[in-house]
Design goal:
single chain; 393 residues; alpha/beta; 7-stranded mixed beta sheet; 5-stranded mixed beta sheet; 14 helices; 36% helix; 15% strand; binds pyridoxal-5'-phosphate
Length: 393
């Protein structure tokens, strides 16, 4: 557990603070692949940078402390982190995933782990009673996102963790959308937390990275073994960038969330908008559960335009808010899940889980909210196809 009572301080001082040799306030970038050893047969602390590197170790200690775990692991991407976790399983095992997890998580299970005989099934993890009926003897883990991508569906993390524990299987939470600043799944009973640190933890759209945190010695040993064996580790410079990004996570997220709440309310009352998905709106699915397990509704918003609005023109005419994959940076980004982040999910599956072609996903940045809203509404008016009723009075 953290030595700091409040996470705002742990973000800056947690893990390994500064450099023990020079007293530099920042952990140096130990750009080295190997380390001189003092003699044969002695086990050195550092031997080879795939196995361990001081800059990466500082990041790993930091994320473990922030998530309230006993061990953290840094990987070259969120997908490398997910791949390492999925490598815990054996041929014949099956993993249950939430019905709208990140497209890449679905793809790696469907196209890579399937080849090794590790199966998956997509279930509605918001319904715990129904979920329990899907736990067959082959099921060895439940992997959830809450909020899930891109419909911001809320799953009761504590309830899934209890269900998993009851059946002696693992509960895994991809906490990318919330970060430990807003939600700490291990404290709710989850076994493994995964991050695409590329998003809010890095925060500046300048690094691709993944993290895993566990709070169990056996799991920690297994993940450490997989990390060293498969080798998808994060480099020293990117580890440094992440430590630097995490220092401002609190202030960034405070502004991100404030902006997101305003944008969600604005979109809810906009004529062009058919539906808004945002866990911070009182009528959102799982509002009460999210309020219990997270600090607030987070930053991500998805919304659907009415059919008489042209979604292609919407994206074309949108200024300031860039059309791009990814999320979690200081700049506002918008994306079209059906053709971008979730394109690897077959059309029929997308329809079934509600990822329609009219769905737009927003990652609200920390710009001035009035500027963001002006661009959003300006774009929505421009794209009105035909009816004068589209025009805002
Ligand atoms: C982006 C993302 C990933 C994949 O992470 P990369 O860093 O892009 O490999 C996994 N899960 C979620 C929820 C994401 O948003």
């Amino acid at each position: 557990m953290s030595a700091y009572k409040n996470i705002e301080s742990a973000l800056i001082h947690g893990g390994i603070y500064g450099d023990e040799y020079t007293k530099a306030v920042n952990v140096p970038i130990y750009q080295t692949s190997t380390y001189e050893q003092s003699g044969i047969g002695e086990t050195p602390k550092w031997e080879y940078s795939r196995t361990g590197n001081p800059t990466r170790a500082a990041l790993e200690a930091l994320i473990a402390e922030l998530e309230g775990g006993s061990a953290g692991f840094a990987f070259a991407s969120g997908m490398a982190a997910i791949t390492a976790v999925l490598s815990l399983f054996n041929t014949g095992d099956k993993i249950i995933i939430s019905s709208n997890v990140y497209g890449g998580t679905f793809r790696v299970l469907d196209k890579v782990f399937n080849h090794f005989g590790i199966g998956y099934s997509i279930e509605d993890t918001t319904n715990i009673a129904e979920l329990e009926t899907k736990i067959t003897p082959e099921v060895k883990a439940i992997l959830i996102e809450s909020p899930a991508n891109p419909l911001l569906t809320i799953t009761d993390i504590g309830a899934v963790a209890r269900l998993a524990a009851k059946h002696d299987i693992l509960s895994i939470v991809d906490n990318t959308f919330m970060t430990p600043y807003l939600q700490r799944p291990l404290s709710l009973g989850a076994d493994i937390v995964i991050h695409s640190a590329t998003k809010y933890l890095g925060g500046h759209s300048d690094v691709v990275a993944g993290l895993v945190v566990v709070n169990d010695e056996r799991l920690a040993r297994q993940i450490a073994f997989i990390q060293n064996s498969t080798g998808g580790v994060l480099g020293p410079f990117d580890s440094f960038l992440l430590i630097r990004g995490i220092k401002t996570l609190g202030v960034r997220l405070d502004r991100h969330v404030e902006n997101a709440q305003k944008a969600a309310e604005f979109l809810s009352s906009h004529k062009a908008v058919k539906k808004v998905y945002y866990p911070g709106l009182p009528d959102a699915q799982g509002y009460d559960i999210n309020k219990r397990q997270a600090k607030n509704g987070g930053v991500m918003i998805s919304f659907e335009l009415y059919e008489n609005y042209d979604i292609k023109k919407f994206f074309k005419s949108l200024k300031l808010v860039a059309l791009a994959e990814s999320l979690g940076g200081v700049e506002s980004l918008v994306c079209h899940p059906a053709s971008m982040t979730h394109a690897s999910i077959p059309y029929e599956v997308r329809q079934k889980v509600g990822i329609t072609d009219g769905l737009i996903r927003l990652s609200i940045g920390i710009e001035n909210i009035d500027d963001i809203l002006l661009r959003l509404s300006g774009s929505a008016i421009l794209i009105c196809r035909r009816e004068p009723s589209c025009m805002r009075s």
